[in-house]
Specification:
Keywords: ATP-binding, Cytoplasm, Cytoskeleton, Motor protein, Nucleotide-binding. By secondary structure, this protein is an alpha+beta fold. The protein folds into 3 domains: 59 residues, no CATH class; 68 residues, no CATH class; 61 residues, no CATH class. 26% of the residues lie in helices and 20% in strands. The protein has 5 helices and 11 strands. The strands form 5 sheets. The protein has a 3-stranded antiparallel sheet, with no helix packed on it. Helix 2 crosses helix 4 and helix 4 packs antiparallel against helix 5. The longest helix is centred in the middle third of the chain and has 17 residues. The chain starts with 15 loop residues before the first strand and ends with a helix. The N terminus is likely disordered.
Amino acid sequence: MPESTAANENDNVRVVVRCRPLSKKEQTSGCKAVVNVDERTGTLSIKNEGGRPGEPNKKDFSFDRVFAPGCKQVDIYNDAARPIVESVLEGYNGTIFAYGQTGTGKTFTMEGVRSAPELRGITPNSFAHIFGHIAKMAGDVRFLVRVSYLEIYNESVRDLLGKDQNAQLEVKERPDIGVYVKDLSAYVVNNADDMDKTMTLGNKN
């Protein structure tokens, strides 16, 4: 199956690395960029300028895909997220999550600036993708889209859309539906704006 339309069935897990540019504070402090990105080979090279004599002057790391600091939000979405969303629309499960230290750009990559189309992150782009797919479906096919939003922190599960923000939910498993969170709220949404408003509400909690 082409990568542009759905995730490769052999790609159970893909690791995509995005390098952010130096912040203004880092530039003012005289920090130097020590990471070189080769998008063609999926390789990151980290300079080892403070290494001891005899140590390599750089270390190389390979990933499924790497993006240089100047990459665009849409490039990240099309490569890292679009194939997964396409697979979900075909009935498969899919997960996208960002991992990194504080200040590395996780929130910008996932959410971006929702008021500026070119700066929207993976999450709002996936909203538009899902409802764009629904709008293109012909015939008598009907869709029901429900949204849930939860937080897992220190092994505690909290419903970000629930009335009781202090309630700790339980992760369960059933033969017919697999893993699920008991008593997790779900809201019906009719368009991407509804999903965006629901996420904004959850973020406040």
